[in-house]
Each structure stands twice: as C-alpha cells, then as structure tokens.
Amino acid sequence: MSHAASSPLQDLARSYGVATEYWDWKGNHVRVSDETIRTVLGALDVDASTVQAAQQSLDDRRDETWRRVLPRVVVLRHGWTPWVSVHVPEGTDITALIRLEDGDERKVAQVDHVVEPREIDGVLTGEATLELPGDLPLGYHTLHVTYGEDEATAPVIVTPRRLQLPEALRTSRAWGLTTQLYSVRSERSWGLGDAADLAELGTWAARQGADFVLINPVHAAEPVATMEPSPYLPTSRRFVNPMYIRVEEVPEVGYLSAAEHQMIEWHGDDARRLNGLADLDRDGTWEAKEAALRMVFRQERTHRRRRDFEEFCEREGQGLVDYATWCALVIDRGLPWETWPAELRDPRSDAVAAERDRLADEVEFHCWLQWIVQSQLADAQREVTAAGMSLGVIHDVAVGVHPGGADGWALADVLAQGVSVGAPPDDYNQLGQDWSQPPWRPDRLAEQGYAPYRDMLRTTLRLAGGLRVDHILGLFRLWWVPKGRPATEGTYVRYDHEALVGILALEAHRAGAFVIGEDLGTVEDWVRDYLADRGLLGTSILWFEREDGVAPRPAESYRQLCLASVTTHDLPPTAGYLDGEHIRVRDQLGLLTRPVEEEKAADDEQREAVLAELRQRNLLPAKATVEEQVGALYRYLTWSPAKLIGVAVPDLVGDVRIINQPGTDEEYPNWRLPLAGPDGEPVSLEEVMTSRRAKRLIRNVTQKQPQR
Q1: What's the CATH number where 108 sits?
Q2: For the MalQ N-terminal beta-sandwich domain, which residue ranges apply (predicted)?
Q3: Pair (83, 155) in one structural domain
Q4: Tens digit of each residue's pLDDT (9 = 90 or more) over 178-218
Q5: Could you tell me which of 689, 694, 687 has the C-alpha nearest to residue 204?
Q6: pTM passes above 0.70
Q7: pLDDT tens digits, residue range 516-540?
Q8: Is there a domain that residue 698 lies in?
Q9: Helices and strands (H and E) in the chain: how many
Q10: For 285, which of 191, 242, 311, 336 could close a Cys bridge (C-beta 3.0–4.6 Å)?
Q11: Range(s) of the domain holding residue 26
C-alpha cells in the first residue's frame, strides 16, 4: 500500500502501528480521519492533539529506544541469534549474561557494530550490540547487563520455530464433536450443561471413534444476575465460569450431614426443573448452584484437599486474588464497578486491600470456586482421553473481555481506555461492528513481558488437549473504534504477532497441546501462510469455501492444516441452513441489506451448487431427505486433506435454530437456546447418546476414506 502524504501525525501513527489508510471490503482505498488517529494515539498515551504536539511526540518516539538501556522484551525463535542494542553513556564498559529459567547462566558476546553516539537528554549516549546465543532453550529467561555500577534487565522469551502436531495427527486425521456445552443438558443437569456433561458426552463420543470435543469458551461471567449470555463477552478470560460445576461431584458433598444433603437435593430439584424451559436460564441455574456450593464450601476439608487448594492458590497468585476480590466487591457493592468510590477502582490501592480483609471469607469462596471448576474440567479432559480420545477437549479462547468485568478492573493498566475492539464494514455487516471490548495495549503487554497474556493461556491449557483461538487475526491487528463513534470510524492497530503467536506456541508446546486459529473472514494471505509455518491450524467452513462466490471449492483443495466443518455457531445448524433459516431470521429481524427475494435467490444458487457437486460425486441421490443431505455434506469433508473434521452436535439431532445471530442483542435469544430436535423441542444428552440419527451421521465421517 502506498502511504498517504507524510505529516508528523501520519508518521507518528505509523511508528505506533496505527493504520492511517486501508482497503475496505469493496476494494476502495480509505483514508483514516485525523480525529480517529488522534483518539487512538491518545489511548496509547501519545499526545497528538496539535501539529506541534504530534511533532514533539514523534521526536520522543525516535529517541525512545535510546532512552532505554535494553528493549522492553526480546522474543525470538529457537535457534535464532538476534542482535540486541544496549544504550549506555558513551565510553561505559558493559558485561552481559542470560540467566535461564532453571537458574543456569550463559555469557552473551558483544559484536563489533559501530553506531554513532547521540545526545539524549543532555547525556552523550552510545550503543553497544549483543548477539544472543543460538542454543538457548525454549522458555522465559532474563538478560542481565552491567554497566558501571548499574544493571539493567530484560525478559528473553525463546519460542518454538514450529508447534509440532500431536502424534495422532502426524500420520492421520481425526474427527470430533463441536458444541456449545451449556446447551447440552442431561437429566442430572441443573438447567445447563456442565463439566460432568462434558465428560459424559466426550466418553460417549470416544466410543464412536471421536478423538476430540470442541466446546465454547468457558470463561468467567458475572457472579450476580444478570449473567451475560455470550461466552464470547466474558468478565475474565483467565478464570472459569463456576456455573459449569457439577455440585454432586464436589468431594466435600460426601461429608455433609443428612439435613445438608437434603438441602442440596432440594436446590437440585428446583434447578432441574429449568431443563424443561424453552430458553436457558443462566441466572436461575447459578442461583441454585451458588446456594448449594456455599453450603459445601463451609464443609471441613481433608488435609490432602486443603493442601491441594493451598497449592492452587499459590500457583495462581495475585491474579486469582484480584479476580476473587472483584467478585466479592461486586456481591457487596453491585455493578458496574466504574461507579464504586475512586479508591476501589484501583486494585492496588490500600482501600481495596482493606476491603479484601473485610470480605476475606467471600474472597476465599471465589478462589475455592475456581479450584473446583478447574479441577472438574481437568477431570473431564482426563476422562475423555482415558476413554480413547487421542486429543480430548479443545477449549476456546474469546477475543476480548467485557469492559465492566474483572479483567477490565484488574488489568486496566494493560487495556486501552476510550476505545473498543470491533471490525470494519464487510459483506455481512455493512455498518461495521463494535464488540465493546477494550483491546490489549501492545506497549504495556511488552513492558510486562506478556505476563497477562501468558497467564490467560496457561489456565485454559491446563484443562485442554487443544486450544481454539477466536479471531486469531487479533494477534496481528485489531480494529480499534473510538468510544461514542460508529464502527466505520475506527482503524487498525498492529500487534507484535511474532511475540503473541510465538508465546502461544510456547505455552501450547509446554502443555502438550495444539492450536486452531479461527481465521475466517477477510485475511491477508501472508497471515495464513505465517500461521501454517508456525504449526497452527486454520478453520474451514464448507459454506464459505467457494471458488468464484458460488461454486464450491473442491474438497481436495482444502488446507491440510485446518479444522474443517460444515457449519459454525454464527450459522444455523446444517438442516436449518439447507432450509434457509439464516435468510428467514435475518428477514424477520430487518437485517437484510437487499430484498429478501434477492437474498433467497443467491442463497438457493449457492446451496444448489454444493448439492450438485455432491450428486456429481455420487454422494447424494437425485431425491434426498434433509438428513441424507446433511450426511453427504459431512461425507464430502472426508475427501479433503483437513487434519480435523468437526461434527456439530446440533447436526446429530437435526436442530435447525441458529445459536447466535450476529448483529442482534435482545432481538434474538442469542446463546440462550438449548439443544433441540427438528421440532424445536429440547433434546437431552441421554437422547443424543441413544439417537439412531446421530449414529447414522457419525458413520459418514468414520467410513474409511483414502488420504488425498
């Protein structure tokens, strides 16, 4: 792209990775307004309010690295030997070493690289150059530089060149289920699917030959009503929603008195009545579970259980304390936290410390809930792999957090203020999107050695055999929208993808897990190539795989490194898509941008092109039922080289309703629909596991097909 005419503001923006221009979805060249650029820079604490201020900030930016003895952080791939600049008063001798994670030390050599000294803040400053050794082990190390009587340090993060595939995927492919866990309820569920239901579903699927089950994000939500229904708008991405606890499977339940047992049963009976509702009732489920769990929490623990809890709290550290403190304050003072007294909006304040002491029991309760829910989800992973799954549970990581949530409070210093994440206009959302989520600040993440990002990944990876990263393009760039402005008036902000993807690969490598990137939508070609080069899988949805906008892409031409599926949670289940449910719903809600007849005609043409391809390949008879069409579509995926094939649980039972309709909030029951049959009547997990329809569909992906 040719840069717009240079000015201090334009140059300043580009130096911070803020786009000053871009190409829109129609191929038009768009210049970002100066007002948007100034607002986005302001969110990075960069003054660009006037031409003079922008010039001063640009001058400061050019001197920034010279003001630092060492870079904020050094991220490299295993085997690389990068040069690191050291800035000290001219003529000062330096010595350098790297202290490894395990305590060992390595000397670091200085290389002969002459750079003219510069006067910085009245001090003649020189630049020395170090070359890091190429045999550093993977992990988190520290570079130490001594100059005169002073010392400086910088984190050094060594990441894998490439994340290796699990053994099961190196020579063959795997298939598994994809599901919104909360929507799959058993007869024992308290109104929502939980960790025990996950284990039940996964062990059943393992017996059918499945190697994984991919679930929605299970990130934490608000501890009080009204609980946000979207799993993609959590209060924290590091911690887990205790709604997924199966109360009866908490070990301490076994030590309750008879009267307490009876109380638990009463709470369970009330909650199980929610299984019959047409829509899910998260608040009702949590009200019953919270009351029961508070009783269990008060029960004395055995010595080994007490030690286990203490070790969990020690491992999770200050992050867990902050999260639990926020929950306790929310229950005490309500939401939004932005209305609390100013001294309580800073998690490091003396006032918050005093409140933490006052609410100590409540803080411990929320720490305990995390211990229980994470333990149960980790148990589910162990159970499904013991049952024969080679990969196990794949967890999902949302792209951001609710601005009024626990992370918004505890991590305010690394989240940008005054802007939110969204997406520019595209074919499906022509006004653009504002997801109302505060983005990471690239500079603050680097200053903290990416610790908040690492902590978030580690929690989820402890529970998983694999990780799906929603909108993985956000590790490269995000669309920042100034508060109060439409999404069309945003701009892209670049991130250090080498660091973010590298750390993701490192954490997954250490956990023995693999990574799927949700890379749907408009993507620069090099991004997909880069992710594949790092060993991360992409995502292919059959309906989106087209060659000329209509004709289906031949299955044989799909990527090998990808999860291929027929549908996704932003589309109807396959039976619904075949029947035009996505057109019908958008028409009823007034979301179509052209006459419904045109939409139907275009959709009919695309759908018929796919079905014609199936008939041509003898996968489908001339006259076929909807169930046969669904089966043939999944059979078609087995002709692809894709390493993973995902079978949507709603397709097992003929569900037709879309789980989430983009572009809506309360107009449609997003994320509130239970698993249901073709007639819209709820279907239980037990019915799924005895369903002949489900087993017929599964046979379409388990029949042997030669790798192509």
Answers
A1: 2.60.40.10
A2: 70-160
A3: yes
A4: 999 999 999 999 999 999 999 999 999 999 999 999 999 99
A5: 689
A6: yes
A7: 999 987 777 799 999 999 999 999 9
A8: no
A9: 22, 25
A10: 191
A11: 8-65
